[in-house]
Task: inverse folding
């Protein structure tokens, strides 16, 4: 599901991915914010204004993993499952988290220096636009071969290609790339607006959050109110409008990153409790809707005002987890290596995972959409029926692992930039426990 979190403009680096932050010394982001620890305070205050943010790695991975989890539940369980839709309700924060991360890292990479359009757009936009175009073609072809699983436009191939590519309809997840391109194109305006944002953060963020909530309210449900609601329900998710608050929130956090991180860590217990309270509120809204006769998938709609609160809680919770990981990680450990590898393939996993998930479900990992059926491809082996949640967890893990391995292999091919959003890997097997400057 990573946003294009960028590279530095003043030195040549290899972008980690369109959702990857600037490369840099991993030690730069390690800090201890304990108020009673003077050395920790020094490390916090010395957090670099430019360079790679290691805490972003885990944040990105958990967000992408949540996206795959949401799609696993949606594809492998009954559409009317009350439990499944309750889990979906909690997972509907990922788009907001992605765009928050986009605003944060783009702004972080441009702190205290001008944004040069002739360098910014040519470097950023192709890293998302090229994979978007290529994967739109892949999903149109796959949908026609599979039989209308993806895409919504019947008719000649050429018509389907241009229509679904133009509107982000080739697959249910590609709209995210379309919105990301819009953010890149409009980010120079956000960058110019940063002084007003930093001078009046409460006024700006509360007003944009209110607009976000209003758009969600008007477009919520299968029968939104009136023609305006119908239009919003059909089209606004393809635009930057409902996500502007999250981009601006990320930009504001970037301007105060050391202070915000220090505050979050000192108050982490309160932050976690507050995040859990927002999840409880989201579930209460869902349960209340189901009790009033609303169908579970409509009650768990991703576009409703309470998502603003639950997404905020989820972002704060993931931020605390990421900060804790940076503080306690061991360089060179298996966990550190896995996080770094996961961050490098996360965007590619997002791009390919619907096909991997569909293939797993089509080859015996989903029997009757009520429970998964693990049926090995060799008919000579016994079949094992798994119940939930074990079956869903198995499919989720397999989708992540298989997608990650495929993307890792594609990184070595000439198609790497087009299909993974990252430059082709050079020969050799670098130690991923360290980031060496090119």
Result:
């Amino acid at each position: 599901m990573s946003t294009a979190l960028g590279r530095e403009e003043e030195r040549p680096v290899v972008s980690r991915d369109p959702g990857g932050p600037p490369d840099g010394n991993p030690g730069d982001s390690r800090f201890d914010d304990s108020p009673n620890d003077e050395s920790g305070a020094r490390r916090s205050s010395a957090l670099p204004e430019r360079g790679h943010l290691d805490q972003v790695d885990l944040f990105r991975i958990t967000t992408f993993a949540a996206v795959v989890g949401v799609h696993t539940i949606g594809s492998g369980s009954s559409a009317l499952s009350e439990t499944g839709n309750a889990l979906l309700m909690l997972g509907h924060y990922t788009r907001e988290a992605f765009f928050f991360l986009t605003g944060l890292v783009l702004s972080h990479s441009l702190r205290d220096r001008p944004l040069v359009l002739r360098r910014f757009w040519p470097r950023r936009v192709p890293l998302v636009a090229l994979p978007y175009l290529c994967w739109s073609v892949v999903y149109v072809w796959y949908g026609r071969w599979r039989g209308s699983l993806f895409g919504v436009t019947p008719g000649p191939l050429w018509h389907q290609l241009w229509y679904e590519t133009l509107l982000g309809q080739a697959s249910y997840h590609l709209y995210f790339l379309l919105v990301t391109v819009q953010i890149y194109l409009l980010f120079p305006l956000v960058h110019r607006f940063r002084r007003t944002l930093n001078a009046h953060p409460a006024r700006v963020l509360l007003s944009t959050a209110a607009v976000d909530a209003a758009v969600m309210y008007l477009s919520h449900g299968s029968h939104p109110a009136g023609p305006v609601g119908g239009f919003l329900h059909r089209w606004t998710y393809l635009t930057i409008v409902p996500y502007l608050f999250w981009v601006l929130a990320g930009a504001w956090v970037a301007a105060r990153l050391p202070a915000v991180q220090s505050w979050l860590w000192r108050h982490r217990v309160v932050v976690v409790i507050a995040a859990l309270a927002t999840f409880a509120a989201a579930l209460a809204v869902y349960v209340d809707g189901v009790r009033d006769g609303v169908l579970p998938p409509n009650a768990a709609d991703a576009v409703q005002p309470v998502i603003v609160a639950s997404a905020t809680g989820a972002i704060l919770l993931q931020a605390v987890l990421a900060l804790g990981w940076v503080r306690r990680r061991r360089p060179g450990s298996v966990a550190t290596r896995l996080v770094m590898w996961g961050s490098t393939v996360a965007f590619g996993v997002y791009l390919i995972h619907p096909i991997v998930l569909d293939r797993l479900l089509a080859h015996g990992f989903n029997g009757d959409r009520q429970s998964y059926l693990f049926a090995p491809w060799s008919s000579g082996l016994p079949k094992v029926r798994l119940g939930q949640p074990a079956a869903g967890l198995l499919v989720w893990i397999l989708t992540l692992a298989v997608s990650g391995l495929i993307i890792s292999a594609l990184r070595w091919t000439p198609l790497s930039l087009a299909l993974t959003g990252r430059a082709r890997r050079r020969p050799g097997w670098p130690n991923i426990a360290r980031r060496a400057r090119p």
The mean pLDDT is 79. The first strand starts at residue 373 and ends at 374. Strands lie at 373-374, 384-385.
